[in-house]
Design brief:
This protein is α/β, with parallel strands linked by helices and 196 residues long. The protein is built from five helices and five strands. The protein has a domain at 22-124 and 143-173. A five-stranded parallel beta sheet has the order 2-1-4-3-5. Keywords: S-adenosyl-L-methionine, Transferase, tRNA processing. GO terms for molecular function: tRNA-uridine aminocarboxypropyltransferase activity.
Length: 196
Amino acid sequence: MRSRCARCLRARCLCALLPEAPLAHQVELVILQHPLEQHEVKGTARLLALALARCELRVGEQFSQPPNPEGRTEALLYPGEPAAAPPGTAPQHLRLYVLDGTWRKSRLLLHRHPWLAALPRVNLAAAAPSAYTVRKAHAAHQLSTLEACAAALQQLEGLDPAPLLQLQARLLSALQAARPAPTVPPPGGSGGTPGS
């Protein structure tokens, strides 16, 4: 088994893609990641957590609700009902939970955690379709975790999403560069008989 970077958890270290210092923002993010996503080469959650100053990444299938001694308003970034971003909540007083996994796995995480399902939802307003082409989206609203969080921070606190989207673009380039080149059959080696 190939060794992994202790920081980004990648066999091919991607730490050089990260900003020099974590990006400042006000909303506290808690990413709840399904274990099958932890070492997914195309996953964006780990790099997102390293790129942001107030972002915690938790991996598992069962999560207890973290203590909230500062009394932050809590919400879930997830489409559907109950849909209501907490009105009038100052960004620095908001804790936003994000589920990281396939749509099937994220629905399973939501089903297993009634405390999450009961939270008010933050729905993304007119988010652009995903530019993360290494993962297939079945609908326009299906974004990478990084894209969804960038759009949410822009919507909730006016954060410029460009640095995060640039990070994703650099990740996409690195993944495409690491792909093995397609093999080309030798001339005359296949594809029919000569003269046919």
